[in-house]
Amino acid sequence: MGDAWIALSLTLKVAGWATALNLLMGVGVGFAMARLRFPGRDLLDALLTLPMVMPPTVLGYYLLVLIGSQGVIGAWLLQHFGIRLIFTWQAAVIAATIVSFPLVFKAARAAFETVDPQLEDAARTLGSGEWAVFFRVSLPLAWRGILAGLLLAFARALGEFGATLMVAGSIRGKTQTLSIAVYEAVQAGQDDTANFLVAVTSITCIAVLLSAGRLVPGRVAARA
Amino acid sequence: MPAPPVWDVRLRRQLRQADSRFDLDLAFSSDAARVVLFGPSGAGKTQALRLIAGIARPDDGRVAVVGRVLYDRAAGVSLSAPQRRLATMFQDYALFPHLTVRQNVAYAVQPGWRNPSRRLRDPKAESWIERFGLQPVAEHYPHQLSGGQRQRTALARALVTEPAALLLDEPFAALDRGLRRQLRAELLQLQQALHLPMLLITHDEEDLEVLAEQVVELSAGKRVLRDPADARAAMLR
Fold it and tell me: Do B175 and B69 share a structural domain?
């Protein structure tokens, strides 16, 4: 059963990195989309939302084309830095990040759009530059909605299967995440292992949801 | 050399609204400490204030307050809003809902990317809180305040910055009549005590009567300069 714990810690590591990356990218892009007006904005919004509606295997295929050893970026990395991304846990992070990105980006955009721009103007007249306005006014007021998006993204990253399998494979102890381990155990007829993995996964998800419920309303009630 | 005028404003900007498009064209030069920009809603008053405050960008013009040039298209000068040191009070006060009264007032005291802590006791902020009688509600959040308390908090927050001038957008519109009269008198006293140039936007004739030394009337973006008595007479017609 030791393998299950390795799979669990790998899964948490991958989902954690994916969520951290999405905190930066999703919040940044969400803020830009909420505040900037430029031609092609709607098209860009649709493109950024695509990973949410496309089958993960299709995304995985696109990723192979990009970061595979023969891929556009993959070949370049291999040639200049000797880095092989494919079939590593980092590839699993890339897959999980892209799949869960729209959840953070959409939530962040919606949250920033509810912030009254006049509050940002008030901060400017009180001496704040653009970064200060963002960290002192926009972000604190949008934080609740962003956090909700981040939790959904973390949950989505935990359960990611299709794209991960295509770019990271299923190497036990190296790239085999919980959801892939469950699939392999069932395929191999190892019911005990499958039961145990499913129980670990379920408990992890419940723990995440509970701690999320504890985290969110308390912070907001203090400020509202 | 003669002293520069208190207000020297020349601004032009094309505005687009839902169904129309017009040129906001505002120019006045005045030595009055209290100028009231007066006109019906939709005349571009709030836009004019945003242009002066540096929140919005004019197409052309020049703005100088007590000789300090804040914007000059021809000379390529355009100070950002934070650099202009014009305290601005917005129509619905724009208090930060996630900060207490004390944190709101102390906002400008603390530079950088972090808001003042709830425990911060800054002497400057505290003196304004005291002056406006806000101590009992200092730990409250904006949604817990009365209209008058909100207005005083917004004013205190603006004055902590030791501004070069005070811009006010319909400062009494959200209040009931009795309170309006009281706060109007308070504002007048305050302006006289601080010798702070003040530009006030309104469509309320009583604001003119009590507060205006000079009236700039704005109708559909064009301005007409009058003295207060004429403006009142024109309105009553």
Answer: yes
- B123 at interface of A, judged by CB pairs closer than 8 A: no
- Using a CB–CB cutoff of 8 Å, tell me whether A38 touches chain B: no
SS3 assignment for chain B: CCCCCCEEEEEEEEEECCCCEEEEEEEEEECCCEEEEECCCCCCHHHHHHHHHCCCCCCEEEEEECCEEEEECCCCEECCHHHHCEEEECCCCCCCCCCCHHHHHCHHHCCCCCCCCCCCCCHHHHHHHHHCCCHHHCCCCHHHCCHHHHHHHHHHHHHCCCCCEEEEECCCCCCCHHHHHHHHHHHHHHHHHHCCCEEEEECCHHHHHHHCCEEEEEECCEEEEECHHHHHHHHHC
Together in a domain, B75 and B181: yes
B-chain residues within 8 Å CB-CB of A127?
82, 85, 108, 111, 161
Question: Which tens digit of pLDDT belongs to each residue from B107-155?
Answer: 999 888 999 999 899 999 999 999 999 999 999 999 999 989 999 999 9
pLDDT digits (tens, 9 = 90+) for B21-39: 777 888 888 888 899 998 8
Whether the CB of A222 is below 8 Å from some CB of chain B: the reply is no
Closest chain B CA to residue A120: B94
Looking at B127, B146, B161, the residue that finishes a domain is B161
Assigned domain for B90 exists: no
pLDDT, tens only, B53-98: 999 889 999 999 988 999 999 888 999 998 999 999 998 899 999 9
Boundaries of domain holding B23: 1-85+163-237
- Tell me which of B104, B128, B161 is where a domain ends: B161
Q: Which domains does chain A have, with CATH numbers?
A: 2-223 (1.10.3720.10)
